[in-house]
């Protein structure tokens, strides 16, 4: 009697496809691991992506907490708590005016992660 769970026979794939799926899952695991290492949770990731996009677009001024909360949709106090670990790792820096900006430590760490992910993607 089947409980509705898939079996290997349900996949109907050959050995080559099986290996392709394994490699893709390995790449997805690597991406998830690197994302967790760099950002922690979803809130941190949203802030880092927002600030990195602004930096790439030439805006290195950063954003105050209230503006980050508004643009990400994350409550201000939640965001304040979630940014602490990123500040401690120097992935984020906060200037005298209270604006948050991408830290050099994040640029270095994200470059290493990007290289690892790109190398893994090249194996697909």
From TrEMBL:
GO terms for biological process: regulation of DNA-templated transcription. Residues 18-104 form the HTH iclR-type domain. InterPro entries: Tscrpt_reg_IclR_N (IPR005471), WH-like_DNA-bd_sf (IPR036388), WH_DNA-bd_sf (IPR036390). It comes from the Bacteria. GO terms for molecular function: DNA binding. This is HTH iclR-type domain-containing protein. It comes from Oleomonas cavernae.
């Amino acid at each position: 009697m089947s409980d509705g769970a898939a079996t290997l026979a349900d996949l109907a794939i050959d050995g080559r496809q099986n290996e392709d799926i394994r490699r893709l899952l390995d790449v997805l695991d690597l991406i998830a691991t690197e994302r967790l290492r760099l950002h922690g949770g979803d809130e941190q990731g949203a802030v880092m992506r927002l600030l990195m996009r602004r930096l790439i677009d030439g805006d290195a001024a950063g954003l105050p907490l209230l503006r980050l909360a508004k643009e990400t949709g994350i409550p201000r106090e939640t965001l304040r708590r979630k940014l602490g670990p990123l500040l401690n790792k120097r992935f984020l820096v906060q200037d005298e005016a209270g604006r948050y900006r991408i830290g050099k430590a994040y640029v270095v760490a994200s470059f290493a992660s990007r290289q690892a992910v790109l190398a893994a993607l090249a194996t697909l």
